Amino acid sequence: MSIPCDNDLNLQQQRIALLLEYFGPSFSGCQIQNNAYTVQEALQDALSELHIPHTSVNFSGRTDAGVHALGQVGHFDTTMDNLKEIPDLVSSLNAVLPSSVSVKAGVFVPDFDFHSTVSAQWRWYRYRLFNHPVRSVWMRQDAVWLRHPLDVNLMKEGASLFLGEHDFQSFKCPKSQIKNNRCHVIHSRIHQEAEYVVFDIVANRFLYKMVRNIMGLLIQIGLGKDFTPQDIPRVLDQRDRQMAGPAAYPQGLSLMAVQYPKPWDFFQNDVYVTNLNQIVQESSHHEKNILRKAS
Questions:
Q1: Minimum mean pLDDT among 7-16, 125-134, 171-180: which range?
Q2: Does the bond joining 246 to the residue before it have cis omega, within 30 degrees of 0?
Q3: Is the pTM of this model over 0.90?
Q4: Residue 55: CATH number of its domain
């Protein structure tokens, strides 16, 4: 991320977008808190250590304590004058950041209409379970171990029932103050990778702890406890968190990628953004085919 040499630009306000990855258990979430170490605090401390005055860093979405990210997007404002002694901002930040967080890429945003939270179109989360009767020292760090066998076919059937636009109040943390509970899910799928059971979900927005609560219900379905796939429409309609079962542990959840519209599609070279773009395109084609058949 090189700095322009035009001296006339030096005093101009500048918005910068960053693509980040981090190891969730090292932080108490991404948003700054009192008496807890967060990704935002780590990043703002790094900017201060580089003597770069800055606004607060905003993120595409909040991740809970323990949740990982491979494609978190954040932005902050500074001036070009503050950056003139730092020819490579990405390398400089990574030199002072803790090893559990890394800046993958950075860009100068062409306008101030871009906001990492508000401008996002689609977000992709992944939950990974290590489903094996014996724990393994080689288990991935972004997975949660579950020793009891799962009926993955039932979980696949259940995951498909979250597609479409629904009120997800039954899957929202009761502490959340957000009033709008409607989310549009365009991709909700479970597959297996050897001993791992992987759940991918893409939506325009997510409520606080929504993915962990959905995964918790899918695990109960896979275990044959209390729920079947046919219960999911009823649970959604009840709009009651107590009816949806326990939440899954945070350590298996990762924010994979965030998609932005043009001209803010800055990170198209990232492999996870590329994969998300493909998911969105395939989902769009699928919805168009359904509408065509219905007409």
A1: 7-16
A2: no
A3: yes
A4: 3.30.70.580
d(CA 96, CA 35): 22
Distance CA 250, CA 64 (A): 7
Same domain, 24 and 97: yes
Q: Do residue 236 and residue 162 come from a single domain?
A: yes
- The residues that are catalytic are 64
Residues 113, 129, single domain; the answer is no
Contact 279, 295 (CB under 8 A): no
> Do the domain assignments include residue 272?
no
Are 69 and 63 a contacting pair, CB within 8 Å? yes
Residues 91-146: pLDDT tens digits?
A: 999 999 999 999 999 999 989 999 999 999 999 999 999 999 999 999 999 999 99
Query: What gap in Å lies between CA 44 and CA 46, rounded to an integer?
Result: 5
Range of the domain at 133: 122-256
Give 128's strand partners: 198
Please indicate, yes or no, if residue 1 is contained in any of the structural domains: no
Q: How confident is the model at residue 295 (pLDDT cuts 50, 70, 90)?
A: very low
DSSP per-residue string spanning 111-160: -TT--TTTT--EEEEEEEEEE-SS--TT--TT-EEE-S---HHHHHHHHH
CB neighbourhood size of 270 (10 A):
17
Task: Let me know whether 107 and 193 are in one domain.
Answer: no
The alpha carbons of the chain give a radius of gyration, in whole angstroms, of 20
Residue 172 in 3-state DSSP?
Answer: coil
The 10s digit of each residue's pLDDT in 21-80 is: 999 999 999 988 888 999 999 999 999 999 999 999 999 998 999 999 999 999 999 998
